[in-house]
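Curious: can you check?
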Amino acid sequence: MKSSLRILLSVFILSVVIEIKPAPFDTGMATFTQPNDVSFTGRIWGDEFIWWAETEDGAIIFECTVNALTEIAAWIVARGEGVKVLQPEELKLQVIELAKGTLKNY
């Protein structure tokens, strides 16, 4: 009983002491084909929670999971003309509406 308690305490202490982080990755330059059959050469960076691809010409393709499109729409509008939504269409429409609302202030 005491030995199993020591083992459990040791595992608990190790899990508290060791900071667990997402596993980062970098593919290096490679050619990728997107779901719409468009190919590009670039590198993919990130971890299991968020990733992005940087193309040879410096463009960024960013992908993440959000609870609602409104979470990311405001972030996109805040980035200004440097960001373009490729898909989904519903997100494009939300960004357009937010941008129009912002313009009404000026």
The longest helix spans residues 2-17. The radius of gyration is 21 Å. The beta strands are 25-26, 30-33, 39-46, 50-55, 60-64. DSSP finds three helices and five strands in the chain.
